Amino acid sequence: MKAPIVAAILVSFFLVHRASAHRLDEYLQATTIDIGKSRLVLEIRLTPGVDVFSKVMARIDTNRDRLISEAEQRDYSDEVLHDLSLSIDGKQLPLRLTSLTFPKIEQMKEGLGEIVFDYEAPVPSGIERRKILFENHHQNAISVYLANCLFPKDPDIRITAQNRNYEQTVYRVDYTQAIAPATAIASSSGSSVRNWLIADAIILLPSLAILWQRRRRVIQKDTAGVRPNAI
Amino acid sequence: MNALAKRTLWILPILALLCTSLRADTPQAATARIVAAANAFLATLDESQKKHVMYAFDDEKQRATWSNLPTSMVPRGGIKMGDLNEAQRSAALALVASALSQRGFEKVQQIMQGDELLKHNDRDARMFGKNLFYISILGTPSERSAWMLQFGGHHLALNITVSGENGILTPSLTGAQPALYQLNGKTVRPLGAESDKAFALLNALDGGQRKRAVLSFRMADLVLGPGQDGKTIQPEGLKASDMNEKQRAMLVDLISEWVNIAPDTFAAPRMAEIKSALDDTWFAWSGPDKAEEGKNIRAYFRVQGPKLVIEYAPQNLGGDPTLHVHTMYRDPTNDYGRGNNKQ
């Protein structure tokens, strides 16, 4: 910083607080839900603030060796999973962990580390109007939450309402899902098969009748001892 | 280098800006001007510095290497201002100025100035200050094929894709800390207009509209901030189709605070695109609906349309959230110009 700029800066610092560039006293837990016809995909990003790092770390580093082993990572993902709940139309859905990522401990200490868990759950086939209820109560004494749905990639799925409590620990999503086309295809394909069978029968039956008549005549002639064109 | 020469070098970006603002550019002229500024900057660098600045256009890692955080926490690619000599720094800033509007460059300077204050206040030159802003170029500056200029540091990430006549500013992050300070006896609020215009729009809504616009839950941070490329969330709040003409004009004016960071030749088609989908654009607010005169709001807000996501999130990081703001500007259909530049 040289003279031309520095000289111009006659700054009063009365409003400048001590800088906090990183998350401090909160454990940010941000969830996105991707709704598909056959499955729900959840991504949860957890960022412990500097001041709550030790509380979060205590739950992860259970053997207190200041390292996060793979077993501890999986145990922590199980613990988080235990504090989550996901249901559709009132029926509980089993969440399956599909991937997990842990940052370096140094990053977490500085409030920069993001733990990421990806889960998925199968969606049972159902009615056109559906309701998802997601709850996250993991370490809620120190946490702040974000819960959102990704804009559905499937054009048959349309989110119609989203409701949350103030803390966003409880998140309800109403959506519609066009299931008619699949049924319509099934029923139309069924009826078309029927139509083809009937058409085939209409064509085949007279032919079969003619063949049966000819065969009958041959048998009658054979029975009479007359062999046409016999040498 | 004598003092006069130094002063002249600092004036170069300002002159570049004045030329931009005085001239009604065609898109081709705007692109030509940015390319010329990029080549002029590159010509000031030695080979080793060029290697630090230049990346392949398809370098996805570098493309996504931006953040709101200080560069000591999230290292950026490129070369930092502190590693450039006066002439090189002047050329770098002239390049940034050439790719922005006058107000856009002013905003960038105010954000950098805020970080300089943090450096003095915290006495931490490793984490804050104007010297810690980085510049990088992805691809080869060209008037025809796509290339990209990145400039950023703490609270700033400009990702400018230039592709022939098109200039795309998304995704870009602007933030400020302190988001209000005194300089030369004047109060500076780098993101003050964003705050004031959103607050004015909220207050222009009637009871029913307000009920739909104000979310009943707390928004603790940006949803689609750094690292969230490629995601689009379900919009919420009040739709512009349910606003009257005055309110819609206020919404457009609010959006222009981000769109008009780009020069007019690039901002005008972008704004036309946003206006064409205005009916499907939503405004949502979360947090206190009161603000002190001359200060920033404490509330989060989001403007979201089919080709637009804007988020404004005061940061409750142990201090006054009106003094620490993060904002995000995205086009879910064309971040990094991907909609225009299918590789």
Walkthrough of the structure:
The complex is a heterodimer of chains A (231) and B (343). Chain A has 5 helices and 11 strands, in the order αβββααβββαβββββα. Chain A is an alpha+beta fold and 231 residues long. Chain A has 2 domains: 23-178, no CATH class; 179-220. In chain A, the strands form 2 sheets. A 5-stranded mixed sheet of chain A has the order 6-7-3-2-9, covered by helices on one side. Chain A has a 5-stranded antiparallel sheet with strand order 5-4-8-11-10. Chain B is of the alpha+beta class. Chain B folds into 2 domains: 3-168, no CATH class; 189-337, no CATH class. Helix content of chain B is 38%, strand content 19%. Chain B has 10 helices and 14 strands. Chain B has helices at residues 3-22, 27-43, 47-53, 60-63, 86-98, 102-122, 192-204, 207-213, 245-259, 264-276, and strands at residues 54-55, 79-80, 134-138, 147-153, 156-163, 166-168, 172-176, 181-183, 186-188, 238-239, 282-286, 300-305, 308-314, 325-330. In chain B, helix 1 runs parallel beside helix 5. The radius of gyration of chain B is 20 Å and the shape is globular. Chains A and B meet through helix 1, strand 1, strand 2, strand 9 and strand 10 of A and helix 1, helix 6 and strand 8 of B.
How do you describe this structure in short?
The complex is a heterodimer of chains A (231) and B (343). Chain A is of the alpha+beta class and 231 residues long. In chain A, 32% of the residues lie in helices and 32% in strands.
Characteristic key phrases:
heterodimer; A: 231 residues; alpha+beta; five-stranded mixed sheet; 5 helices; disordered N terminus; B: 343 residues; twelve-stranded mixed sheet; two-stranded antiparallel ribbon; 14 strands
- Shape field of chain A: elongated
Tally the beta strands of chain A: 11
Q: Helix-strand pattern of chain B, N to C? A: HHHEHEHHEEEEEEEHHEHHEEEE
**Largest sheet report of chain B:** 12 strands, mixed
| Structural class assignment of chain A | alpha+beta
Average residue pLDDT of chain A: 79
Radius of gyration of chain B: 20 Å
Overall mean pLDDT of chain B stands at: 92
Q: In which range does the helix fraction of chain B lie?
A: 25-40%
Calculate Rg of chain A over CA atoms. Answer: 35 Å
- Domains of chain B (count): 2
What is the terminal-to-terminal distance of chain A? 124 Å
Q: Which oligomeric form is depicted? A: heterodimer
Sheet with most strands of chain A: 5 strands, mixed
The low-confidence parts of chain A are 1-18, 182-200, 221-231
- Quick one: how many beta strands of chain B? 14
Name the strands of the widest sheet of chain A in spatial order. 6-7-3-2-9
Largest interface in this structure: A-B, 45 and 54 residues
Structural class of chain B: alpha+beta
